[in-house]
Structure formats: structure tokens, C-alpha cells
Write a structure and sequence with these properties.
The structure is a homotrimer. The first copy, chain A, has about 350 residues and is an alpha/beta fold. The N and C termini of chain A lie far apart (about 90 Å).
Chain lengths: ~350, ~350, ~350
């Protein structure tokens, strides 16, 4: 069954101004590049106006600045990207799941199950766990003892939440996410035989706020003593590592492959690129933006954009340039010497 | 039961020239270093000739250039590494799996199952999914609604494939692989309270070509609107992140821990090292080689080798040199000034 | 039921000297910052003495140097961190698990099960596998054919161990760990159509020593021909990649997101930071420390600390400085030229 909406129906629901026929009907979203006449596409940036002019979309969503950049039926609105997200959510509702507890699931009798939940095949819900109303627990998920899953949360298949953790309302956790595993806590004990690591029990929890989305195979460790905390509205991409006792402020977004070491505090509204590494016990201010692959070794106290990626080049010239980094301090000293000698000559010359 | 083959039998099946007794029998593969007389080993590079001379292997595979580098029974062939791979596949057949659908598996009645498939314990096959002939679905795998698995594909335990995806024939997906999770699509909506991220539904698919191998815990997100595409013959190592709408060209190989951001297009026959980061919306030409840990921030239009790793050194000298990078632009200006002042003195002196 | 211990009982069990009332009772561990009077906290470094003076903990563990830094009841000992770890293990015993084999688990009749084991819901134990006495196999774990799990080992939910591997006694493997997947072994075969990768069968094993802990979603590949080896007492954090035929020496600790390429040998007692990349076929000496995000491209033969992170800065200055790296070799040449010209002037001047 295909959902179809007219532009008039859309603007009635979501606001914005229809330019062109409000009876234009669309069935699905598309990119300007690949849309057909059943699609509604969107434009956010000037550089895509060329695509707009060639698009075969049936309708488009755009801002006031591009109001006249096309003759297609269109919706003019303040934030085309967010507007498009909402239209897409209506046209493409999330696949429904079977309600109820799948007969193959293993639910401890002491667990609390809210109304209208779905527990998938072979899922395991531990002792004293609680699943909020409307939550969807995917196949093969594991919800540990005493853990609470908020109302309307969705765990895709194969998510593991250890004991005593908390997942907020409406959170989305993708496959392979692991929440609440032990942090990397080890005490070194010297010994006659050379010594060994003693495991430091990780007795804190991992607490995830409301409306957080966490990408596939990302891991968030439980706290060592106090808790690891992810505040509301945070967005985490795939394969991210959040170590024990990290605190991520509300509405911060972190791209894939980034790692944050223990006890670091990230502010609110930060935007952190992919493959960033942030050392432990640091504090990052609100509204900080960090470029991809940057290594952060000191606290950042001011909002702003920070970078630290090494520039790539052809291997041959890279070999020539990179090797000189190992002599950079010497080069600086050499230049200082030249400066001195030159100044001396200049004095004589005067 | 041990398979054993004579060099004559091997060369009959795979070509190459036997030097020494064709009746020499081997049971398994070995490294030059650790092989015993039941083993067949191989040599590809000059630097291992020393190992060849000390090996206790029963036979070796090598190229014409090394034909006389040993007195052992041997097979001389064009590509010893590929030849060895084929011999190993014969001597070490993949562990057989129980045919049929394990009684503990959950297979939706609307799914299509090919001949001679194996579905492991506790696996879940969703509505309208299809499993090609001879495919092996490991224990705890999840195949989402409408997803098609190609003939002869092998999913090791714990693989998750979301809905509406396609996995090509003879693909090998290792444990923990996640295909088709939502891409990192978020629209920022400013608000009186500071604002929040609106989820952009991810309605594209992830399409994996034939003969692709994907390493453990690697994630490939579904497209936002159009599809994410991995072409035939691609090799992906472990813990790789392929973001939404990335396109990876045929026969490209990517080493572990690499991340490729959204909508980037990678060419065919590329070789990308480990822990590489490639920014979004870029285009990388065919036959590009990228060294490990390089950050790619611009499109690459020419085949060639590209690098960008920062050279390591002892921490003490690293501290001295790295700090100077923060003054590199000043140093360049200082040298320009010296150049000017020196030229002035020289002019006077002339 | 709350465990409670007096300082006298603790020192009786673990040594150390009680200063203040030995009858002081504690129920749980706490940080100096957040402890209440039921907690015992610990101090290791001078910089936390300020926290010590403000703490509301009921008791603290500290070294002789800080013996008089507080008036609280306290235990003075040689290694407060390790002592604290042991106290925490007593006050916070690991959650007990149901003994026996869960009825939903799938255990091959040919598997060997030790005494007092626990096999969780939906776990799969393969043919000829063996589970040592007291081992805990979590829900959804997969233990492959012929694999041996040591006595007292704990696999958290969703761990996958391929066939013919060995996990030592008392190992702890966190959720999503994959041991023994195929290494990234591919032989390139040129062809009229451009060529393709031939899979090199991975016939070695992955052998994990006793008392190893492995973090969530970390992957350790099996060997190509010989084995991949992790020696006793090693600590691996989350999302680490250990490639085929790597050898990690005893008691080495590796932080999250680090990748070690094939056949590299890491010494004993090394401490490797997060997001480090170590190229293949290298050898790293014992007692080597490597800072986070360092790329190691050559063997390290001397104990010591090695670094190679690019320093971050504000994006604006980063853009100015980083671009100059691409001209660093030219700058060095330019400085050499200046040096020559200046020397000539100086000679004339003399």
C-alpha cells in the first residue's frame, strides 16, 4: 500500500507555503538527481541549484531564497532539511513490527513490560528489567538485570545492554550497540615476576537520556564508580567508543569511529567529526566543533572550531615533507641563528 | 580425515610445473618458517629466500625467478600467492555446516528459501526475505524483511542485515557485520530552547555485489534516499565504517578501522590502508592507493599513491617538534623576511 | 542484601595499616568527589588531595605519603589503586548468573561441559567444543566447533568465537567480541578483465592466554597459516582490531580503537594508547609505551615512550600551518640556501 499526499495536505500538517498546485501528489522522497515525478525532493544549498534545474521530481521543498529557482510545484519553508525529514517520516513510516512477545523470546518473570511493546525472536529480558510502553526490542537483543528501557525506545536486533543501565524514552539503538560493558579499569601491581593488571570492578552505570540515537556497533561503557552519562538528544554514529565516566552534553552529535577516553566531559551542542580522538579527563566547552581525525589532548574552554588533521599528498612528496617534521625544532633554531647573524651583518653595514 | 595430495595432482588441477618428484604428498599448508615435511609452503619475495633455505616444508610453491633457490620438490607458477590460496582451499575445505533449517531458527513463512541452504540455530529470517541456493546463514543471524541473500553466500554467526537490502552471490560476511542500519542523517532545528536534531528517515537500501567479503564488526549503512552500493569483488576488513550513500567500486580492498563518510565515491581497484579517514561527498579515482591512517579531505582525480601519516618518534623529541607545527606559518614568514633582508645586503655588496 | 565490612576486616583480608577506628564500616566504593559516609574512596595522586579534604566518604585508602592528609578513618597501603580494586571486588561481587544450561541454549551433544558452568539463553555450543569448569557463557554467545573455553572464563552476551580457537582460564570477553574470524588474506590475480582478489583460506587459530580481558566489539582474527596469539594477562579495550598472526606479549595493555596489522609482534608489558595504528610485520620491544593516535610504521627495538599525534589548534590557524607542511622540504632547502649565502657574505665581511 502506497501512501500519497498532496502538497496541500503536507503544508496543512507541517506549515510552509505551497507555490504551484496544492493538489500535486507525491508518494515518496527523492534526491534532486534521481527523483521521478512521484517524488518530493529538497534543496538547502546554492550549489545544488544546478541539480534543481535538471530534476524530474514532482515537487520540491526549499527556502525563501530559492523560491523562484524552479517552476515546479514547491513548498517554501524556513528549514527545508528539517521539513523534508518530517515529510519523509510521513511518507516512509518505519516498518511495523509484530506486537507482543515473540514465543522464542526469554523474558524473566520479574521483568516489567509496558503496554504495546514488541519483543523480538530470541530476545532476552533479564531479572527486574523494565520495558517502557511502546518500546520495540529487536530479535537477539539482551536487556540485563535491572535495566530500564524508556517508553517508545527502539532496539534494533543484536543490541546488548548490561545490568542496571537506563535507556531514555524514544531512543533508537542500532544493531550491535553495546551499552554498559565494563570500562577499561586496571590497576598495575608490580611483582617479583614482573607484575600484572588487577581488574578494577566497574560498579557505575551507563545512563542514556531521552531521544538519543546510537549507531551500529558503537560501545558505551558503564562507569567505574560514578556513572557514564549521555544526555538527551545526543546523536552518535557507528563504531564510536565512549569510555567509562564520560559525560556527553545534550544535543551533541558525534560522527563515526570517534573515541572518547575515560572521564572526559563533552559540552552541549557540540559537533564532533569522525575518527576524532579525545584524551581522558578533559573538559570540552559547549558549542565546540571538532574536525574529523583530530586528536584532542587538552581541554577546550572556548566555543569554536578546532582541527588537527595531517594534510595528505602524493606519497613521494609526503615522504620528503614528513621526514622534515622530525627536524622541525632544529630548523627553527637554525632560522634563529640565521636571524642573529644577519642582524649582525646589517648592523655593520649601517 | 586428512586430505593428502601429490604435487602431480595439484599441478594437474591448477597448472604450474612440478620440479622434483610429482609423487611428493602434502597434507596441509605451512609457512616457510614453521612448516614440517607434511606441509606445502610458498615464496613470493626475495627477502624470504633465507627462510626458504632453512624450511622443513615437504614442498614449496614459487615463481620462475626462484626456481633454483631450493632443492625441495616444488611447483613453479606465475602467481605463487594466488596458487597457494587455491591449494590451501583444497587442502583445508571450509568446515561443513549442518544442512537445512535448525529447529530453533525463526523463519517467516513468507520467506523464500533456496535449495541446499543452511540456517543456523536461533537465526531469524524475516518476512518476504529470500535466501539463495546453497547459502549458509549462521547462528544468531538476522535477515530483515524483504532482504535478499545471494546464492552461495555465507553469513557467519551474529550478522545483522536490515530490511530491503541485497547481498550478492558468494559473499562472505563475518560475525558482527551490520548492513543497512540507518545512516547518520540529522537535520538541525533551531529553537527557543537551543534546538534539537530531527532524524532524517533513511529510506535507501544497502546493495552488496557478488563475491564481496566483509570483516568482523564492519558496518555499512543504508542510503538516506538513494542506495549505498558496494560493487562486486570488494574486500573489506574488520571494524570498517561505510556511511550512507557511499559507493565503493569493484575489486577495491580496504583495510581495518577505516571510515568513509557519506556520499563519497571510491573507484575500482583501489587499495586503501587501515585507519584511513575519507571525508564525505568526495570522489576517489580508480587505482588509487592510500597509506594507513591518512586523512583524505579532497577528491583524488589521478591514480597513484597518497599518504598523510604523521611520523612518530620518541615522545621527548615529538614534544619539541610537534609544538613547532603551531608556528610553521610564522616560520615560513620569518624565512621570507630573512630572504629579503639578505638579498638587500647582497645587492649592496655587489 | 548489602555487604558491609569494617576497616579491620578489610585490612585483615588484604593487609595495610588502619589509621582511625578499625570498626568503621563501609558498604560500597565511591569517588572522593561523590562518596557518602557509607563509601570507601581512594587517593593515588597529589592532585586529588583537594578532593580528599572535601570528601564525605566514610573512609579512604591511601599511600604512606598521604597518611596525614586527612583525619578520616583510613587504610594506608603500598598500592592504593590495586588495594581499592580488591576492596571493590569484595563489596561489589559480580552479579550471579543462573547455573546450568538454559533450556533455550543449543549445545552439541559432542561438546564437553565442565562442572558448575552456566550457559545462557539461546547460546550455541558447537561440536567438540569444550567449556571449562565454572565458565559462564552468556546469552546469544556462539562457541565454534572444536573451540576450548578455559575454566572460570566469562563470555558476556553476544560473543562469537569461531572454530578451533582457545580462550584461557579466567578470561573476560565483553559483548560483541569476535575471536577467530578470517584474517584479511587476499592474493591479487591479474586478468584480462582487470583482475580480482582470490581469498587465501585462513587456517591458523586464535589463541588467547589466561587472565586476558577483551573489551566490547573488539575483533581478533585467526591466523592465516600459523596462529594469532594473545599471551596471558593482556588487557584489550573496546573496538580494537588485532589482525591475523599478530602476537601480543603478556601483560600488555591496549586502549580502545587501536588497530594492529598482520604479523606484527608486540612485546610484553607494553602500554599502547587509544586509536594507535601499528603497521604489519613489525616488532615492538617489551615495555614500550605508545601515545594515543600514533602511527607506527617501523619496528621499535628500545623500551621507551613514542608519540606521533598531530597537534590540534583553532581551525583558522590549523589551515595556515597545515598547508605549510606540504612545503616543508622546500622550506628546509630554502633555509640551507640562505645559510650558504649568508656565510659567503660573512666571509667577505671578515
Amino acid at each position: 500500500m502506497v501512501t500519497s499526499l498532496s502538497l496541500g495536505e503536507i503544508s496543512h500538517a507541517l506549515g510552509g507555503e505551497v507555490v504551484g498546485s496544492p493538489h500535486t501528489r507525491v508518494e515518496k522522497v527523492g534526491t534532486l538527481e534521481n527523483a521521478d515525478e512521484r517524488c518530493i525532493a529538497f534543496l538547502t544549498q546554492d550549489r545544488f541549484v544546478r541539480d534543481l534545474q535538471k530534476t524530474r521530481a514532482g515537487a520540491v521543498i526549499l527556502g525563501a531564497a530559492h523560491r523562484d529557482a524552479t517552476a515546479l510545484p514547491r513548498i517554501v519553508c524556513r528549514n527545508p532539511h528539517a521539513y523534508f525529514a518530517r515529510v519523509s517520516a510521513i511518507l516512509h513510516p518505519v516498518t511495523s513490527v509484530a506486537p507482543g512477545v515473540h514465543p522464542s523470546a526469554t523474558v524473566d518473570p520479574s521483568a516489567t513490560l509496558g503496554n504495546d511493546i514488541s519483543v523480538g525472536a530470541h530476545a532476552v529480558i533479564g531479572r527486574q528489567a523494565s520495558i517502557g510502553a511502546g518500546a520495540i526490542i529487536g530479535a537477539h537483543c539482551f536487556v540485563g538485570e535491572g535495566t530500564a528501557i524508556g517508553a517508545g525506545a527502539r532496539l534494533w536486533p543484536g543490541v546488548v545492554i548490561y545490568h542496571d543501565c537506563h535507556i531514555g524514552a524514544r531512543c533508537i539503538l542500532h544493531a550491535g550497540v553495546v551499552i554498559g560493558a565494563d570500562g577499561f579499569g586496571n590497576a598495575w601491581e608490580q611483582g617479583a615476576d614482573g607484575g600484572r593488571w588487577i581488574k578494577v570492578p566497574q560498579v557505575g552505570r551507563a545512563l542514556i537520556g531521552d531521544d538519543v540515537e546510537i549507531g551500529a556497533n558503537t560501545t558505551i561503557d558503564r562507569g567505574a564508580i560514578d556513572d557514564t552519562v549521555i544526555e538527551a538528544g545526543v546523536r552518535l554514529d557507528n563504531l564510536i567508543m565512549i569510555a567509562h565516566n564520560v559525560h556527553v552534553g545534550a544535543h551533541t552529535a558525534i560522527a563515526a569511529c570517534t573515541g572518547i577516553a575515560g572521564s572526559t566531559r563533552i559540552g552541549r551542542y557540540c559537533r564532533i567529526g569522525g575518527a576524532v580522538g579525545i584524551a581522558g579527563h578533559l573538559s570540552i566547552a559547549d558549542n565546540v566543533e571538532i574536525s574529523g581525525k583530530t586528536l584532542i589532548t587538552k581541554s577546550i574552554t572556548q566555543a569554536g572550531t578546532y582541527s588537527g588533521g595531517y594534510p595528505f599528498e602524493e606519497a613521494r612528496s609526503w615522504r620528503r615533507n614528513a621526514v622534515q617534521i622530525r627536524h622541525l625544532d632544529d630548523l627553527v633554531k637554525q632560522v634563529k641563528q640565521l636571524e642573529k647573524r644577519l642582524a649582525q651583518l646589517e648592523r655593520k653595514d649601517r
